[in-house]
Amino acid sequence: MNTVVLQSHRLPLPAPWLARCLDSVRGWAARRGFEYRFEDDALFDRLPGDLRERTAGRPVIAADLARLAACRAVLDEGAEAVVWVDADTLVIDAEGWLLPEDDYALGREVWVQRDGGRVRDYVKVHNAYLLFRPGNPFLDFYRHAAERIVRAHRGPMAPQLIGPKLLTALHSLAQCPVDERAAVLPPAVAHDLLAGGGDALTRFRARSVAAPAALNLCGSLVGRELDVDALVAVMDRLASNPALLAPRARR
């Protein structure tokens, strides 16, 4: 059985730019000869009843759990690999984006933000992209840990609790394999791209080790930190010149 690429989102899609993102991932999968599967909210049917209750009103947490169950189900079918890609991810280099050979991999997050008059950056990992191959040691452990955390947690849950927060903590100790080309586009960097440059873009390039081939566009922040017109303009710019985010050679 071939490599399977999984995506999910509620239907109908709330914005045309999301359809464009999905099309870019579908096109990348076709180019690579991968099987592509899309699910709507049926994704959540894989969660046990108690976890559905615990995550009621917390769709990000529920999706973080459900994607792991979906990935396990695909591997159990006999797939040679399963790749999860969030629906708000845009592939900007379909030709050059190859899967790493590791038996699992996480996405790379170089987060840059403005804090008053300063620019801060944080290098993390994320679960908007996940790769798992048969026999990998990580999927079942991560799923087990995430479910235990949700069941034990009391009080408000940060949306990133079992996604980037948990994964970055694990990665800081275990140094998990990372697909450096499966990146995230912070709003501050997007604004600099439209402006033709800036300190956030410079910092992003300096802290990245590879040119992004796919970018999670942080859909939850669209309309808050980046308006839709600006986002579409950024997508157009990157589509015509993916190298805009490539690391600059150090002198």
User: Radius of gyration, rounded?
Assistant: 18 Å
What percentage of the residues does DSSP assign to strands (E)? 15-25%
Q: What structural category characterises the helix and strand content?
A: alpha/beta
Count the E strands.
Answer: 9
Distance between the termini: 46 Å
- Average pLDDT reading: 95
Number of helices: 8
The H/E string reads EHEHHEEEEHHEEHHEH
Write a structural description.
The protein is an alpha/beta fold. 40% of the residues lie in helices and 22% in strands. The chain has helices at residues 16-32, 49-54, 59-77, 139-152, 161-174, 187-195, 199-207, 228-240; strands spanning 3-8, 35-39, 81-85, 89-91, 104-115, 118-132, 178-179, 182-184, 214-216. It has a 6-stranded mixed beta sheet with strand order 2-1-3-6-5-7, with helices on both faces. Strand 5 and strand 6 (118-132) form a beta hairpin. Helix 3 packs antiparallel against helix 4 (139-152) and helix 6 (187-195) packs across helix 8. The longest helix has 19 residues, at 59-77. The protein is globular and about 50 Å long.
